[in-house]
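Standup notes
- HV: blocked on the assembly model, inputs below
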Amino acid sequence: MPSVVHPGAGVVAARLTDLTYWYPNSALPALDGVSLDVSDGITVVAGPSGGGKSTLLRVLNGLVPHFHGGRIAGHAQVAGMDIVRTPTRNLSRSVGFVFQDPELQAVYDIVEREVAFGLENIGLPAAAMRERIDEALAEAGVEHLVGRQVRTLSGGERQRVAIASVLAMRPRVVVLDEPTSQLDPEGASLVISAAIRMSEAGRAVLISEHRLERLMQVAAGLVVVAGGQVERHEPSAWRRGRTQIGTMRPAHPGPEAWSLIGVTAGPAGRVVLRDVDLAGRQGEVVALSGPNGGGKTTLLRVIAGMLAPQAGSIERRPGRIAYLPQNPTALLHRPTVRSEVELTLNRAADREDPDMILGTLGLAGLSERYPRDLSSGERQRAALAAVLPGRPDLVLLDEPTRGMDSFARAALIQVVAQLRDAGSAIVLATHDSELRDALADRVLLVCAGKVTEQGAVRA
Amino acid sequence: MNARAVAAWSVACLFIVLFTTNPAYKLVVLAAAFVTLVTSAGIRRMRRLLIAVACIGTFDAMLNFVSAHVGRTILFALPDSIPALGGVYTLEAFAFGASGGITIAAAIFAAAPFSLLLQPHDVMDALPNALSRTGTAIAASMNLLPVVVTSFGEVSEAQRLRGWRPRGPASWAEVVVPVVLTSVESSIQLAESMEARGFGSASRSAFQKRNLEWDHWMVIAASGLAVVLFIADHAMGGAKDWFAYPSLTAPQLDLPGLIACLLLFIPVLVWSRRA
């Protein structure tokens, strides 16, 4: 009999008892004998990629099993309702769910209409909606966005509108599945503030999150999900870990690998970067930081030669470029993770053993899996494995640690450090301060079309 | 702006433009649609639309001119030995092509208010309750279009840098397949999000149902009257059709048909006031 986990100390809002779940066509359970009580306050759900965090969270509003199918055994209750017998659409009145990607949640084009969507679905009369909408917008901290078009909002604003749209249903439990993974630090901080306000309002809040520093100060419980099983930990016992790199650094960076001279650029004739002078060397890691929409991706695309400058010029040493786009899973189309790596190696006419990078990125056990069946963190690693093999001369990575757990981040740091030591010029756009601290020789702030040197990080 | 009034006006414009072959009436409808858009949306917002209409209309007119080598008024001739282009070029073919171009331009301008003057939620609010869920699902899927477009750009760039080069239709699979897979996954995630917010759990209510005001009724009434008047005129031998071949004749206008088309200018008076 598995042990029962009680993360919070207050009233139990949800209870899972010996719950086991298998996805369709899967012999191994994604959740295995899970027993868990969820109480008021914030419960942080942590654990490695592919360990079952998203599955566990989706059980709480019935998306697992009602939307995803598969087999389920055991008992699960939320707000007094049997999750296994109650469809998700009915559970939505008691359990709000905020997804990872703010762009794939909006139905309407205007903020208050988007917040009203759930209320319309449950047939609430129009006269009763206004009060609930105002209340939800205030709780999520986005009352100032009334009347704005959703597509004009930043990622952080969008995510808080998504939070408001579930709060309008006045749920007992709010579940947030890595809500900040695609946001810059400012946007992430605002979303976490909204989560804290929700718990202060007496809701049970479950949040799967990698930026734990601030949350752990207020969390009532910490649940670690790994291999489909849950373990309880005291939030007070959590300590921030730092990634160590065990690679030797070259004595000096090599010759200049790329340079931008007076470059003005932007997509579709817009000016996103203005009059940028910049250069990078072989064996050097340049990190780009700055807010979402500041121009980091545009700069990477210009360096890669995928976006022609409107003015100025670019110079690059000849050689292969490895480019990880912001949405790396879009790359994946081969039947297995290994065949993705082999495709890149074959095209580069490189004889490197695919197992080398698969092993380093912790993908050896997943090499024969279909990449799109993997969890989001595992997919991210698969995409990295697909672009990085074969000793590329120039490596351009756009938010490479998005959704990654600490193990995967350490593995990425190891791979990038090896490439750097082998003489690759590396540019990475990232909000991840740990990645910057671990790897960057120089940090550049890209903001409002300007690129500002923030100084050398490493001696 | 009320979507039902816009729909009534658009349908009336499209009906007359597609019902008659007479370019004189089509021109009046084209003018009504153009002036309506200019006064309510502004010429700046119409820039892309104008370019698209000019290109499509011109292409349609020229296609008939170069491919229909019939008619009595010969403008010039190219040797028959030139494949596809050889033969006589006639005034009649040009006029018939121009009439087709006017039809397309008028039809596009008539449908344009749905994108230029209305938001997706305006259209959804105007749907009857029975179509509310379907309309919501369609509107939600429309939100995915920018995601698909972005995904196409990202994938083609990333694949190029992995060594992919377009070599024939089969090679595009490496771009198209990931884009399609990503689109399907995005749709599933959106569906998940909608389900998680109670979509389909009960009979839907509406945050805003826009009532028809007097000016909306005026547009609807004028649009209906335009269609009825035009059909009646045609049934009684008026609003005559026109055909360019074999010899070009001037299209004829009669008063009832003209009045029917002029009724389509009514939105110029009421929508410009709201814009």
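- HV (later): unblocked. Residues 1-6 of chain A have pLDDT under 50 and may be disordered. Residues 185-200 of chain A form the longest helix (16 residues).
- Next: hand off to the docking folks.
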